[in-house]
Amino acid sequence: MALKNQVPNVYSVGLHNVGSYQVSGMPFAVSASMSITFPYVTSWVKIVNEDASAVNVAFSANGLSASNNNYFTVPPTGSTEPLSLKLTELHFSKTTDVTVVAGLTNIPTQRINNLSSSNGPIFGPNWSGSVGVG
């Protein structure tokens, strides 16, 4: 006997799909401008600062704002370790001598809801930079 209003379980790529992260990432490398929008969600990312001054890095433009300060700093001529992060974009406080290397999943960035409100219900991941995520 079939249940009414039963929704079939659909298996596909997404944030909570383990298989999307178990495979090797597609290679991605770019010299940074003020921001980078990745074509797919990252499984890991490494930031290399080749400049003589530090660079602030945020997960949204809002994270770099003076009122939020939700960013981390890569020291002069330094780099991060590979960071296991699900990202769709990165924002920088400067545009010179920053290189980003990442492994991309096969999850299109359109599958991520970055527009959810920090003050209301969250219908997807919120990387707005307003609640400690920058």
Main sheet, how many strands, which sense, barrel?
4 strands, antiparallel
Order of strands across the main sheet: 2-6-4-5
Number of helices: 1
The helix-and-strand class reads mainly beta
Order of helices and strands: HEEEEEEE
End-to-end separation in angstroms reads 50 Å
Stretches where pLDDT falls below 50 for ≥5 residues?
116-126
Shape: elongated
Helix content: under 10%
Radius of gyration, in Å, reads 17 Å
3D structure, described in words:
By secondary structure, the chain is an all-beta fold. The protein has a domain at 20-111: Jelly Rolls (Sandwich). It is 3% helix and 31% strand. The chain has one helix at 19-22; strands at residues 26-31, 35-37, 40-49, 55-58, 72-74, 89-92, 98-108. The strands form 2 sheets. A 4-stranded antiparallel sheet has the order 2-6-4-5, with no helix packed on it. Strands 1-7-3 form a 3-stranded antiparallel sheet, with no helix packed on it. The radius of gyration is 17 Å and the shape is elongated.
Summary of the model, kept short:
The protein has 134 residues and is an all-beta fold. It has a domain of 92 residues: Jelly Rolls (Sandwich). Helices cover 3% and strands 31% of the residues.
